[in-house]
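Supplementary Note 2. Why include the ligand at all?

Several targets in our set were suspected to adopt different conformations when bound, so apo predictions alone were not considered sufficient. For every target with a known small-molecule partner we therefore ran a joint prediction. The input for NAP is given below.
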Amino acid sequence: MAFEIAGRRALITGASSGIGAALATALAEAGATVGLAARRTPRLQGVLDACLVHSPDSRMWSVDLARPQAADDLAEAARSELGGVDLLVNCAGIPKRRHVTRLDPATVEQVMQVNFLAPVRLTLALLPEMVERGEGRIVNVSSVAATLSSPGEAAYDASKAALSVFSEAMAIDLWDSGVKVMVVYPGVVDTELFQIPDNDPLPAAIEPISVDEVVTAVLEGLHDDAVQVYVPGWFAELASGKAGNVEGFLSGAAEFVRTQGRSPS
Ligand SMILES: NC(=O)c1ccc[n+]([C@@H]2O[C@H](COP(=O)([O-])OP(=O)(O)OC[C@H]3O[C@@H](n4cnc5c(N)ncnc54)[C@H](OP(=O)(O)O)[C@@H]3O)[C@@H](O)[C@H]2O)c1
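The joint prediction is reproduced in token form.
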């Protein structure tokens, strides 16, 4: 059954900028009451102000999802201030563009905490109420990096792959419950993600898409009850092509890295 956004309560993490901010604003414009979460309070306030124009009961919470307990606290705040959550959008995430020879375990754990463990914990905290109501939507923002194993991003790729596989297995478990799960696989999107310090530069050949393209695809996916959304859509074919010839895909990726003047090793 198509998901009607108007009148719903949506909780969006990573709502202070980029994809999350644009999605939150679009959901508020479509008539949802939105709850916004991220660390940067002034940025979050700016997004909330834009949402309040359409959706006066919207809220925001400043949370650091690197702190394990934060997801539980956020779920509790959303429960008490929004009255519950019909649509959870796990969008908060951090990049980690760093060659595997320069990765350390603490960095990998930090990326897994924000990109995988926090959305899982938030989901598990809110899921029982959705199941009890027999309705709910969970949208997890993964990345094409999850299925294409982007070079120089092993920790990030793994965190998004974990989120994707968790989401798919959860979708099966919940198939007849009325709670639907959708995984979003954006390619390179023009956001502040590429200005975050302590990351290697993005390969020059990659042309980013706009956040609006991602928002349109997510809204269409919600309408269609899609289980996955690639943006742009042709990445889905690339992912299935890789699955059919992993060795060929990996050697092609190593060649791409060489053409960028970098060494794969
Ligand atoms: N841009 C791309 O090319 C691309 C491609 C594929 C997937 N994605 C995914 O899309 C999602 C949104 O990224 P974006 O591109 O829109 O970049 P962005 O503008 O940097 O957004 C990232 C969001 O995550 C929040 N966040 C980061 N660390 C957090 C923490 N510890 N606690 C709470 N919130 C935190 C940030 O807010 P604060 O800094 O205020 O906390 C921000 O709102 C991410 O999951 C990213 O992995 C992006």
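The chain has nine helices and seven strands. The chain has one domain: 9-259. Comparable summaries for the other entries are listed in the accompanying table.
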